[in-house]
Amino acid sequence: MKFRYRAFLASLLSALAFPAAAHPFHGAGEGFAAGLAHPFFGLDHLLAMVAVGVWAAQIGGRAAWIVPAAFVAAMLGGAGAALAGLGVQHVEPMVAASVLVLGLLISLKWKSGALPGALLVAFFAVFHGLAHGAELPAGSSAATYMAGFALATAVLHGCGIALGRMMCERAMNPHLAGMPVALAGCWLLFAAI
Predict the structure, then answer these.
(1) Domain of 142?
(2) CA–CA distance, 79 with 45 (Å, rounded to integer)
(3) Which residues contact 84 (CB under 8 A, 6 or more apart)?
(4) Where would a tag sit more exposed on the chain, N or C end, judged by fewer CB atoms within 10 A?
């Protein structure tokens, strides 16, 4: 058990590590590096993406991979829409609402099943994608930028799945993870409106 906890902690910390540089996103690979970093530097994105993994692990079964995969796919669709010029109002409040809702789902340990869970996270993921797509750095390749934030999202989902499985194995109270996320979602939503 201690090894699994340490392995999870090590993978989480290494996922958060970035090379030190004065201007980390300039030069070759700028789009990929910027996309890779983006989900880690926004509290709303970071919490939502880890929470998707935790909730998917709580649902269990096929949902452990279907729910995160639906999030990534819908997020890429939202980013593509933003890059094509689609402007949607209330993107930031919807991103914040996703944090609140996911925190409540974790806290209540609500098991929706794979398909309803995938549809719910896909709805919110579109707004995360719209936010990511709107922040494409000037002169960057959209494809490499999107590949970067898709990879970062998958890593964060994986960390959430590992955390969720650890919580289930140890029969931890889901409120310990869910309520702080939900409260952060309330704060983010208040700040966004």
Answers:
(1) 41-192
(2) 14
(3) none
(4) N
CA distance 154 to 57: 14
User: Which of 125, 120, 67, 139 lies closest to 91, judged by CA?
Assistant: 125
In a domain, 32, yes or no: no
* 3-class SS shares of the chain: helix, strand, coil, % to 5: 80, 0, 20
With 0.85 as the threshold, say if the pTM is over it: no
Q: Structurally, how many domains does the chain consist of?
A: 1
Contact 82, 132 (CB under 8 A): yes
Domain annotation covers residue 6: no
Taking only the tens place, the pLDDT of each residue in 81-126 is 999 988 788 999 999 999 999 999 999 988 888 999 999 999 999 9
Averaged confidence pLDDT in the chain: 86
- CB-based contact 102:185 (threshold 8 Å): yes
pLDDT tens figures, 129-159: 999 999 888 888 899 999 999 999 999 999 9
* DSSP-derived 3-state class of residue 143: helix
Is position 4 within any domain?
A: no
